[in-house]
Amino acid sequence: MSDLIDRYRGMSDGELDLLAQDIHELTAGAQQALQSELARRGINVPDISHGQWESERPVVVASFLNLHEALLAKGQLDSAGLATSLVDDNMVRIDWFISNLLGGVKLAVPPADADIAREILAQPIPEDFDVEGVGMYEQPRCPQCDSLDISYESLDKPIAYGSTMLLGVPVPLGANRWRCSSCGHTWKGATQKGPRE
After folding, report:
1. From CA 120, how far away is CA 113, in angstroms rounded?
2. For the ranges 16-30, 61-75, 80-94, 146-160, which has the lowest average pLDDT?
3. Per DSSP, what are the bridge partners of residue 87?
4. Alpha-carbon distance 123 to 196, whole Å?
5. pLDDT exceeding 70 applies to what percent of the chain?
6. Are 180 and 152 in contact (CB under 8 A)?
Protein backbone atom coordinates (compact mmCIF):
# COMPACT_ATOMS: atom_id res chain seq x y z
CA MET A 1 0.00 0.00 0.00
CA SER A 2 2.92 2.36 0.65
CA ASP A 3 3.90 2.00 -3.03
CA LEU A 4 0.44 3.23 -4.02
CA ILE A 5 0.63 6.17 -1.63
CA ASP A 6 4.00 7.17 -3.14
CA ARG A 7 2.66 6.76 -6.66
CA TYR A 8 -0.43 8.90 -5.97
CA ARG A 9 1.73 11.59 -4.30
CA GLY A 10 3.77 11.83 -7.49
CA MET A 11 0.69 12.39 -9.67
CA SER A 12 -0.75 15.76 -10.65
CA ASP A 13 -4.19 16.92 -9.45
CA GLY A 14 -5.57 16.35 -12.96
CA GLU A 15 -4.25 12.78 -13.06
CA LEU A 16 -5.74 12.05 -9.65
CA ASP A 17 -9.06 13.53 -10.73
CA LEU A 18 -9.14 11.25 -13.79
CA LEU A 19 -8.29 8.26 -11.63
CA ALA A 20 -11.02 9.19 -9.14
CA GLN A 21 -13.63 9.10 -11.92
CA ASP A 22 -13.03 5.34 -12.22
CA ILE A 23 -12.36 4.70 -8.53
CA HIS A 24 -14.85 1.82 -8.47
CA GLU A 25 -12.49 -0.16 -10.78
CA LEU A 26 -9.60 -0.02 -8.28
CA THR A 27 -8.89 -2.55 -5.56
CA ALA A 28 -10.00 -1.72 -2.02
CA GLY A 29 -6.43 -0.82 -1.02
CA ALA A 30 -5.96 1.42 -4.05
CA GLN A 31 -9.30 3.14 -3.35
CA GLN A 32 -8.22 3.82 0.23
CA ALA A 33 -4.81 5.20 -0.83
CA LEU A 34 -6.43 7.40 -3.51
CA GLN A 35 -9.02 8.76 -1.09
CA SER A 36 -6.28 9.58 1.44
CA GLU A 37 -4.22 11.47 -1.15
CA LEU A 38 -7.27 13.36 -2.44
CA ALA A 39 -8.20 14.36 1.12
CA ARG A 40 -4.60 15.43 1.85
CA ARG A 41 -4.68 17.77 -1.17
CA GLY A 42 -8.16 19.09 -0.37
CA ILE A 43 -9.68 17.60 -3.53
CA ASN A 44 -13.29 16.35 -3.43
CA VAL A 45 -13.20 12.68 -2.34
CA PRO A 46 -15.70 10.46 -4.22
CA ASP A 47 -18.13 8.38 -2.16
CA ILE A 48 -17.51 4.70 -2.83
CA SER A 49 -20.07 3.26 -0.43
CA HIS A 50 -21.87 0.17 -1.76
CA GLY A 51 -25.27 1.84 -2.06
CA GLN A 52 -23.87 4.79 -4.01
CA TRP A 53 -22.11 2.54 -6.50
CA GLU A 54 -25.12 0.28 -7.02
CA SER A 55 -27.29 3.24 -7.97
CA GLU A 56 -24.70 4.49 -10.47
CA ARG A 57 -24.14 1.19 -12.29
CA PRO A 58 -24.30 1.83 -16.07
CA VAL A 59 -27.43 0.81 -17.97
CA VAL A 60 -27.22 -1.04 -21.30
CA VAL A 61 -29.31 0.89 -23.85
CA ALA A 62 -28.49 -1.10 -27.00
CA SER A 63 -26.67 -4.22 -28.24
CA PHE A 64 -24.96 -4.69 -31.60
CA LEU A 65 -23.65 -7.81 -33.32
CA ASN A 66 -21.02 -5.79 -35.16
CA LEU A 67 -18.38 -3.67 -33.46
CA HIS A 68 -18.54 -0.95 -36.12
CA GLU A 69 -22.28 -0.45 -35.51
CA ALA A 70 -21.63 -0.14 -31.77
CA LEU A 71 -18.88 2.42 -32.40
CA LEU A 72 -21.19 4.47 -34.64
CA ALA A 73 -23.93 4.50 -31.99
CA LYS A 74 -21.38 5.37 -29.29
CA GLY A 75 -20.17 8.26 -31.44
CA GLN A 76 -23.75 9.46 -31.85
CA LEU A 77 -24.26 9.56 -28.07
CA ASP A 78 -20.78 11.00 -27.42
CA SER A 79 -21.50 13.87 -29.81
CA ALA A 80 -24.70 14.56 -27.86
CA GLY A 81 -22.55 15.00 -24.73
CA LEU A 82 -23.52 11.74 -22.99
CA ALA A 83 -21.01 9.59 -21.10
CA THR A 84 -20.85 6.16 -22.77
CA SER A 85 -18.96 2.90 -22.51
CA LEU A 86 -18.88 -0.32 -24.52
CA VAL A 87 -19.18 -3.74 -22.88
CA ASP A 88 -17.64 -6.88 -24.43
CA ASP A 89 -16.08 -4.86 -27.27
CA ASN A 90 -12.60 -6.22 -26.54
CA MET A 91 -13.86 -9.81 -26.62
CA VAL A 92 -15.46 -9.22 -30.01
CA ARG A 93 -12.24 -7.56 -31.28
CA ILE A 94 -10.26 -10.63 -30.24
CA ASP A 95 -12.71 -13.17 -31.66
CA TRP A 96 -15.61 -11.65 -33.63
CA PHE A 97 -17.14 -15.11 -34.04
CA ILE A 98 -18.32 -15.14 -30.39
CA SER A 99 -20.35 -11.94 -30.71
CA ASN A 100 -23.64 -13.90 -30.76
CA LEU A 101 -22.59 -15.93 -27.73
CA LEU A 102 -21.91 -12.76 -25.73
CA GLY A 103 -25.10 -11.05 -26.83
CA GLY A 104 -23.16 -8.62 -29.00
CA VAL A 105 -21.34 -5.46 -28.07
CA LYS A 106 -23.36 -3.54 -25.48
CA LEU A 107 -23.61 0.24 -25.28
CA ALA A 108 -24.02 1.51 -21.70
CA VAL A 109 -24.73 4.94 -20.20
CA PRO A 110 -25.27 6.26 -16.66
CA PRO A 111 -28.83 5.54 -15.39
CA ALA A 112 -29.78 9.23 -15.50
CA ASP A 113 -29.02 9.36 -19.25
CA ALA A 114 -30.68 6.08 -20.28
CA ASP A 115 -33.98 7.57 -21.53
CA ILE A 116 -32.37 10.33 -23.57
CA ALA A 117 -29.84 7.87 -25.02
CA ARG A 118 -32.65 5.57 -26.18
CA GLU A 119 -34.46 8.54 -27.74
CA ILE A 120 -31.32 9.59 -29.63
CA LEU A 121 -30.69 6.04 -30.89
CA ALA A 122 -34.33 5.68 -31.99
CA GLN A 123 -34.23 8.76 -34.23
CA PRO A 124 -34.88 7.97 -37.89
CA ILE A 125 -32.09 8.04 -40.46
CA PRO A 126 -32.03 11.51 -42.07
CA GLU A 127 -32.86 11.59 -45.77
CA ASP A 128 -30.15 14.16 -46.43
CA PHE A 129 -27.75 16.42 -44.59
CA ASP A 130 -25.34 19.21 -45.31
CA VAL A 131 -21.64 18.31 -45.48
CA GLU A 132 -19.39 21.30 -44.91
CA GLY A 133 -17.37 22.10 -48.01
CA VAL A 134 -19.22 19.52 -50.12
CA GLY A 135 -22.88 20.49 -50.02
CA MET A 136 -26.04 18.47 -49.53
CA TYR A 137 -25.53 14.69 -49.21
CA GLU A 138 -28.50 12.51 -50.05
CA GLN A 139 -28.70 9.14 -48.30
CA PRO A 140 -28.78 6.07 -50.55
CA ARG A 141 -31.94 3.92 -50.56
CA CYS A 142 -32.92 0.31 -51.12
CA PRO A 143 -34.09 -0.22 -54.72
CA GLN A 144 -36.70 -2.76 -53.51
CA CYS A 145 -38.49 -0.99 -50.62
CA ASP A 146 -37.00 2.54 -50.70
CA SER A 147 -35.68 2.20 -47.11
CA LEU A 148 -32.77 4.28 -45.86
CA ASP A 149 -31.65 1.52 -43.46
CA ILE A 150 -29.03 -0.08 -45.72
CA SER A 151 -25.40 -1.07 -45.26
CA TYR A 152 -22.49 -2.13 -47.41
CA GLU A 153 -21.13 -5.64 -46.80
CA SER A 154 -17.55 -6.18 -47.83
CA LEU A 155 -17.27 -9.64 -46.20
CA ASP A 156 -19.27 -12.75 -47.11
CA LYS A 157 -20.32 -13.63 -43.56
CA PRO A 158 -21.79 -17.13 -44.18
CA ILE A 159 -18.50 -18.28 -45.73
CA ALA A 160 -16.40 -16.55 -43.05
CA TYR A 161 -18.52 -18.01 -40.21
CA GLY A 162 -18.62 -21.48 -41.78
CA SER A 163 -14.88 -21.59 -42.39
CA THR A 164 -14.26 -20.49 -38.81
CA MET A 165 -16.39 -23.37 -37.52
CA LEU A 166 -14.82 -25.95 -39.84
CA LEU A 167 -11.22 -24.77 -40.10
CA GLY A 168 -10.80 -22.65 -37.00
CA VAL A 169 -9.88 -19.60 -39.09
CA PRO A 170 -12.10 -17.31 -41.15
CA VAL A 171 -11.76 -17.27 -44.91
CA PRO A 172 -12.27 -13.58 -45.75
CA LEU A 173 -14.03 -13.76 -49.11
CA GLY A 174 -15.44 -10.46 -50.28
CA ALA A 175 -19.17 -9.99 -50.70
CA ASN A 176 -19.07 -6.42 -52.06
CA ARG A 177 -22.80 -5.91 -51.92
CA TRP A 178 -25.45 -3.74 -50.29
CA ARG A 179 -28.03 -5.13 -47.85
CA CYS A 180 -31.31 -3.60 -46.73
CA SER A 181 -32.04 -4.10 -43.03
CA SER A 182 -35.75 -3.47 -43.61
CA CYS A 183 -36.60 -6.02 -46.33
CA GLY A 184 -33.39 -8.14 -46.53
CA HIS A 185 -32.87 -7.37 -50.22
CA THR A 186 -29.24 -7.54 -51.42
CA TRP A 187 -27.75 -6.01 -54.56
CA LYS A 188 -24.42 -5.13 -56.10
CA GLY A 189 -23.41 -1.85 -57.63
CA ALA A 190 -24.59 1.65 -56.96
CA THR A 191 -27.41 2.47 -54.58
CA GLN A 192 -30.59 4.23 -55.59
CA LYS A 193 -30.90 7.77 -54.35
CA GLY A 194 -34.27 9.05 -53.34
CA PRO A 195 -36.12 11.84 -55.12
CA ARG A 196 -35.28 15.42 -54.16
CA GLU A 197 -38.09 17.89 -53.55
Report:
1. 11
2. 146-160
3. 106
4. 21
5. 78
6. no
In angstroms, the CA 27 to CA 16 distance is 15
- Which of 53, 25, 48 has its CA nearest to residue 35? 48
pLDDT tens, position by position, 135-167: 888 888 898 898 888 877 765 666 566 666 676
> Angle at Cα 81 formed by Cα 75 and Cα 83, nearest 5°?
75
